[in-house]
Write a structure and sequence with these properties.
two-stranded antiparallel sheet, 332 residues, MetI-like fold, 12 helices, mainly alpha
């Protein structure tokens, strides 16, 4: 019962956060000192023509009405204009791009697979690499393995993403010519080619983030291994592998899960940089181009969609945390 209450509370909190983000984003982007209808007004842009464009997009209505229509469009869809020139945007509708003449939802669907492929693959890789390296370093405390793992984390923490990416492209893409650079193969067309073309972006992001996870996992494992219940388990003759996996690692992972939830919030910006470095067209590239072209519906839609992913990911992290530590759901 406590777990169900905890889940309901977290879901309601997530919905409230999304509503606040939507309101703030909508307010900021619609109060900017620019008229986004000028880009689709044409030349010459007469006052009458611009007024017709504003009416088509609904920008001639009060701001609160525009926000309500925006929220309603996400749930039920929305129709821009009327008559033969009307454009329907199916739910979930995050807006309509005046520059690309396409709904933001469709654009997100076109660009999101690239971003998701890079982000999810890199997150899994750095989590596995960082945790496993940290555990090994803790178990081999004081040996050359521990010193090598600790020294490698210094490089990963201090190196900027663009520098690591450029070095990877030069060494593995051009000098050794062993990995492809600058192309993306859809997963549905060629799963093996999809993974092969993403190895280098995955490794770049994983190398940068795994260093922090190695440090935290190592320090937490060293602390947990000195706890009384671990020494008791060893004294009872329980195998070392079981002591590490069932007793030590589970408790050492609690701060790692918390860190992973925080890193998910920065993953989108890191992925956007990686997309630019490797010339892959994902949501980061779409957002950067939209900002340069003042395509505010795309900026607003991508921002809100990214916030939704971050809130959803953190919700799953909270639920995973409650599974690792039942005291969280009891006290939540």
């Amino acid at each position: 019962m406590a777990t169900a209450t905890y889940v309901v509370q977290r879901v309601l909190q997530a919905l409230l956060v999304l509503l606040v983000i939507a309101a703030l984003s909508f307010l900021v982007f619609h109060l900017l000192p620019t008229d986004i209808t000028q880009a689709s007004c044409g030349k010459p842009c007469t006052p009458e023509r611009q007024a017709a464009v504003r009416h088509f997009y609904g920008y001639d209505q009060p701001l609160i009405t525009q926000f309500w229509q925006f929220l309603r469009g996400i749930v039920l869809g929305r129709t821009y204009g009327s008559g033969p020139a009307a454009v329907h945007c199916g739910a979930p509708c995050f807006g309509y791009s005046f520059r690309l003449h396409e709904s933001v939802t469709v654009l997100i669907g076109q660009y999101f697979p690239v971003t998701a492929s890079i982000a999810i693959g890199a997150a899994i890789l750095w989590l596995l690499l960082g945790v496993s390296t940290g555990v090994v370093a803790a178990l081999k405390r004081g040996t050359w393995v521990d010193r090598l793992a600790t020294a490698s984390t210094v490089v990963g923490v201090s190196a900027p993403a663009y520098l690591v990416g450029l070095v990877g492209i030069y060494v593995f893409g051009f000098k050794l010519n062993v990995l492809p650079v600058g192309t993306y193969v859809p997963l549905t067309e060629d799963p093996i080619g999809w993974a092969w073309h993403l190895i280098l972006p995955w490794c770049v992001l994983a190398f940068l983030s795994a260093a922090v996870y190695t440090r935290i996992t190592r320090s937490q494992m060293l602390e947990v291994l000195d706890e009384g219940y671990v020494r008791t388990a060893r004294a009872k003759g329980i195998r070392e592998r079981r002591v590490v996996s069932r007793h030590a690692l589970r408790n050492a992972l609690l701060p790692v899960v918390t860190l992973f939830g925080l890193d998910l919030g920065f993953l989108f910006s890191d992925t956007a940089t990686t997309e630019k470095i490797f010339s892959m067209q994902g949501l980061g590239s779409l957002l950067i181009d939209a900002v340069g072209q003042l395509d505010l519906p795309v900026v607003l839609g991508v921002t809100l969609f990214s916030a939704f992913l971050i809130v959803l990911a953190n919700l799953f992290v909270d639920l995973a945390y409650s599974r690792l530590d039942p005291r969280v759901s009891r006290n939540g």
